[in-house]
Amino acid sequence: MTDGLYPRLADAFPALTEIAELLRAEGEPPAEMVADLPYYGPCTCTATCINLLTAPPGSSGSSMIQLERDGVDIIWLSLDPSRTTVTDIEVLDGRDLGPNAQRSV
Question: Of 54, 61, 74, 105, which one is least surrounded by beta carbons within 10 A?
Answer without folding.
Answer: 105
